[in-house]
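Input record (one chain):
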Amino acid sequence: MPTFTHGGVDPLVAGVYERWEKQGLPGAPWPFMSMVSVARLHQLLQKALESELKRLGLSRTGYFLLTTLALISEGHASLSTLSRLVMLHPTSVRLTVDQLEAAGLVGRLPHPSDRRATLVRITDAGRERAGEVNRALESPDGPMGVFTDFHREVFEALQPVRRAAGDLDDVAL
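The corresponding structure, as predicted from the sequence alone:
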């Protein structure tokens, strides 16, 4: 049995380890335990994020689109590029862009060389809203405050796994 360091291991996950062999399950428990831990962390992050976004009148997809647009040097991208970058179906991206446009946070413009494509550009109000969310998410007093000291650590710990899975190969902004 491994020694769990850092105190406070999830008792459900630790219990899985202790019972795995006893119950005669083949293989090691680590794949299951890692997936459960990541899923539980994801739920906690989602709950905190949704709480903050609701307060600021944005959906999760809206926040991801605004921040992605703010990070693109030109401040605009095609709907298909946004769909690929945020890993959502183009219809979901289009509906979210409709909502953001109605709120004055993005605008649409024709693609300069492809009449079939539409570009989405972030407005000054959209940049401000994305910045407001980002400041709120890093606040130690906000819903994500418990994660403040761990954001970078979690990000860096996940990079080798994402790279090995090929997730970082086609994500350039």
